[in-house]
Structure to design on (122 residues):
């Protein structure tokens, strides 16, 4: 699946900032190539020990539609072919949510020593 390769590339991308000063990270970090909303990547909090990017990724969530069900009283009630499944027959059966990801660079003497990511969109 391509997302594991993208995750691996994202990890390598973040690794390059280790050992860099905070100012370099602020100037060069750009997450839009990894599918994050670039307009909100500027929401950065920083202090002497951390540099935190709060970035957003829109996720399309399929709305489950009931599978075709038939009522069979002798078989214990409703039977279907696999429970809830998204319908692709109509185009608009998804809704979009903004999932957040926090990229946290840990700083010592204004230099990034490590990073971590937290959130559902990471």
């Amino acid at each position: 699946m391509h997302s594991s390769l993208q995750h691996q590339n994202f990890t390598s991308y973040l690794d390059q900032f280790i050992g860099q000063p905070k100012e370099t990270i602020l100037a060069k970090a750009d997450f839009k190539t990894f599918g994050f909303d670039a307009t909100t990547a500027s929401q950065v909090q920083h202090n002497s020990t951390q540099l935190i990017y709060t970035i957003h990724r829109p996720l399309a969530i399929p709305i489950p539609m009931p599978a075709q069900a038939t009522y069979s009283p002798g078989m214990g009630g409703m039977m279907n072919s696999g429970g809830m499944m998204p319908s692709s027959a109509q185009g608009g059966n998804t809704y979009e949510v903004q999932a957040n990801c926090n990229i946290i660079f840990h700083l010592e003497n204004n230099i990034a020593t490590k990073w971590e990511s937290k959130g559902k969109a990471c």
Remarks:
- The first strand starts at residue 44 and ends at 46.
- Residues 2-118 form one domain.
